[in-house]
Amino acid sequence: MAIKDWPESERPRERLLAQGAAALSDAELLAIFLRVGVTGRSALDLATELLSEFGSITGLFAAPLDEFAKIKGLGQAKYVQLMAVHELAKRALHEEIKRDTVLNSPDKVRDYLRLRLGPLQHEVFMALFLDAQNRLVSSEELFRGTLTQTSVYPREVVKRALANNAAAVVFAHNHPSGIAEPSRADEMLTQALKSALQLVDVRVLDHLVVAQSGVTSFAERGLL
Questions:
Q1: Distant-in-sequence, close-in-space partners of 184: CB < 8 Å, separation ≥ 6
Q2: Is residue 57 a contact partner of residue 51, using CB atoms and an 8 Å limit?
Q3: In 32, 96, 100, 190, which residue has its Cα 20 to 30 A from 78's Cα atom?
Q4: Contact 200/162 with Cβ under 8 angstroms?
Q5: Contacts 24+ apart (CB under 8 A), 74-81
Q6: Nearest-angstrom CA–CA distance, 220 and 216
């Protein structure tokens, strides 16, 4: 049955207007984005199939065009729209983080990093450079590696911290494996970076490991 034939109180669009976007499921929000389904299948059916195929919203954002377009009723135009929505969400969160201190908006920082790093199929190491009030000065991708490892050079990190006149930094990297669990190598790298940055009076506030399954904080684990 097409969504337009549902009782009005059950339609995703009407529910969003009445209850707010947070009241809707991932599939319902995605159905609103898709707008229409295909013959014999509603937009909600199509949205449910997409989430099943790619595992999650994050997995959907990470999908390459050729895999996305295998779903009947979808193609390049809808893929471009989806990528635009993803980029707008990242930019909106980045703006919110810049308006506040990073320590006052940890959930927004995590959401931003999950959007930026979670979908990637290669490992990326980045830094959020902060001023003396812990406000975001710049977020930069510093190193990029393979699916399993990346080379991070403390000297280059120190140079970027000085170039940004940073007083503190939050590091983040992703685990394309999908498991947000720090490795022993991650711990050793963090300590090496912390020691190098102490020489120029830059504090390391946290190191976040990002995966589709979640975000793990070194600070919360007592690893700093």
A1: none
A2: yes
A3: 96
A4: yes
A5: 74/46, 74/50, 78/34, 81/33
A6: 8
Confirm if 93 and 118 have CB atoms less than 8 A apart: no
| pTM flag (> 0.85) | no
Q: Is the dihedral of CA 175, 179, 180, 183 positive or negative?
A: negative
Give the residue among 204, 186, 184 at the shortest CA–CA distance from 194.
204
H-assigned helices in the chain: 12-19, 26-34, 43-54, 57-62, 65-68, 76-99, 106-117, 154-163, 184-198, 218-221
Tens of pLDDT, residue by residue over 75-89, are 888 889 888 988 888
Judged by DSSP in three states, 208 sits in strand
Q: Which residues contact 91 (CB under 8 A, 6 or more apart)?
A: none
- Residue 143 CA to residue 159 CA, distance in Å, equals 14
The pLDDT tens digits of the residues spanning 154-175 come to 999 999 999 999 999 999 999 9
Q: In the chain, which residues have pLDDT < 70? A: 1-5, 8-9, 103, 146-150
From residue 168, how far is each of 103, 143, 185, 197 by CA, in Å?
11, 19, 22, 9
Q: Which of 127, 130, 140, 126 is nearest to 101 (CA)?
A: 130
- Alpha carbon distance 43, 45 (integer Å): 5
Q: How far, in Å, CA of 216 to CA of 183, rounded?
A: 11
